[in-house]
Amino acid sequence: MTVGIVVVSHSSKIAEGAVELAAQMAPDVELAAAGGTDDDRIGTSLEKVLAAVEQSLVDSGGDGVVVLSDLGSAVMTAESAMEFASNPDAVQLADAPLVEGLVAAAVAAQGGAGVDDVRKAAEAVSFGGGAEPDRRDGPAEASGLGDPDATGDFELINPLGMHARPAAKIAGGLSGLDAEVTVNGADGMSIMALMALAAGQGSSLHVEARGKDASKAVEYVGRLVKEGFGEL
């Protein structure tokens, strides 16, 4: 069993589309879409969300459930559903961007992470509000973090390069480590930032890490790259 994940959105199409995307990267994770009202209008339904949470509690086999939502009233609906759930202590609400957070959470769950770490993986990704660093000075100078504790350079060998699945694997795995990581100057825990690198096959990834788990972080990225992200 793995941690279950429920997606709450005002739109059934958004919820279903987000689940479809995450399922491509985490095929063994139970993902449930709870979008729209009971009559398929824009809005949220407590009954629909509660039903999804209860089913996820069953499907997860006791491993727990993480809920992600889009807009404010969806959060309130999710919180109400958690209160009425048969096992509210096993359900956690992630304060995270819906798509990026969902993918990071799903990848973490696919890797066997517990409910606390799955929620943290979702919350570790960026909401995308920061300014883009000036990479002409290099990652360390742009971030103001000083010299890295560990570095590594790795050549992408998978045919499609840094697309959504590799980016999700990197971000999801790094979220569980005590380290700040950049990849070619981009935030290593932001799926969108990694994808924006547009790094194709044969490109080099320069990884810098700072913190207690810096070496583990660099080794983790290097292993993924050398294995072709499981796509070879």
From TrEMBL:
Complex formation: Homodimer. The dihydroxyacetone kinase complex is composed of a homodimer of DhaM, a homodimer of DhaK and the subunit DhaL.
InterPro entries reported in the protein's UniProt record: DhaM (IPR039643), DhaM_N (IPR012844), HPr-like (IPR000032), HPr-like_sf (IPR035895), PTS_EIIA_man-typ (IPR004701), PTS_EIIA_man-typ_sf (IPR036662), PTS_HPr_His_P_site (IPR001020)
Using the record's annotation, list all stretches that form the HPr domain: 149-232
Q: SUPFAM superfamilies in the record, alphabetically?
A: HPr-like (SSF55594), PTS system fructose IIA component-like (SSF53062)
According to its UniProt record, the EC number is 2.7.1.121
**Catalytic activity line of the entry:** dihydroxyacetone + phosphoenolpyruvate = dihydroxyacetone phosphate + pyruvate
CDD domains in UniProt? PTS-HPr_like (cd00367)
Q: Highest taxon of the source? A: Bacteria
Q: Give the signal peptide as a residue range, or say none if absent.
A: none
Q: What is this protein called?
A: Phosphocarrier protein HPr
Protein role: Component of the dihydroxyacetone kinase complex, which is responsible for the phosphoenolpyruvate (PEP)-dependent phosphorylation of dihydroxyacetone. DhaM serves as the phosphoryl donor. Is phosphorylated by phosphoenolpyruvate in an EI- and HPr-dependent reaction, and a phosphorelay system on histidine residues finally leads to phosphoryl transfer to DhaL and dihydroxyacetone. General (non sugar-specific) component of the phosphoenolpyruvate-dependent sugar phosphotransferase system (sugar PTS). This major carbohydrate active-transport system catalyzes the phosphorylation of incoming sugar substrates concomitantly with their translocation across the cell membrane. The phosphoryl group from phosphoenolpyruvate (PEP) is transferred to the phosphoryl carrier protein HPr by enzyme I. Phospho-HPr then transfers it to the PTS EIIA domain.
Q: Where is this region: Disordered?
A: 126-149
Broad EC category:
transferase
Give the PTS EIIA type-4 domain ranges: 2-139
User: Which UniProt keywords are listed?
Assistant: Transferase
Lineage here is:
Bacteria, Bacillati, Actinomycetota, Actinomycetes, Micrococcales
